[in-house]
Amino acid sequence: MNRVVTTNLRSRNLGPRRVSGFTLIEVLIALVILSVGMLGIAGLYVHSMQAGRTSIMRHNAVTLVGDIADRIRANPRAGPAYALAGANNNCVDGGINCTLGQMAANDIFLWDQQAANTLPNGTVTIVFNNGVAPPTYQITVAWTEPGVNLNYSITIPVFGI
Q: How many CB atoms lie under 10 A from the CB of residue 91?
């Protein structure tokens, strides 16, 4: 007697099935990790923008100090006139003969306007010290950083002639 054995192929694979691909929980965890990374990148970008703005403000302040220091060096005999209030004497037009003090007052006036236009809440002060040789000027530029309410100032001594 011939016996024919037939096997059902479907009944053979009743053991644990092998799964391929990603499960939903793996995808969600990857999405959370990616989201945290993107938030970190966004925070870094915002911080770099603030640092860039602060850098620009500091550069402007140093430029302002350098500008008035050059004006003081160009008019060395004006002495303490650079520590006084500024006045618009129109000395830069060339058609008016200004004294050394008037030129210094005009320089301070223009410098104050430039500081007000360049720095937020920018204030500038010059202190003249004639008690030392050579005379010195303490130039201070101060401003308030917008958005973070921090006050910055730069003070640089300039030696007169």
A: 20
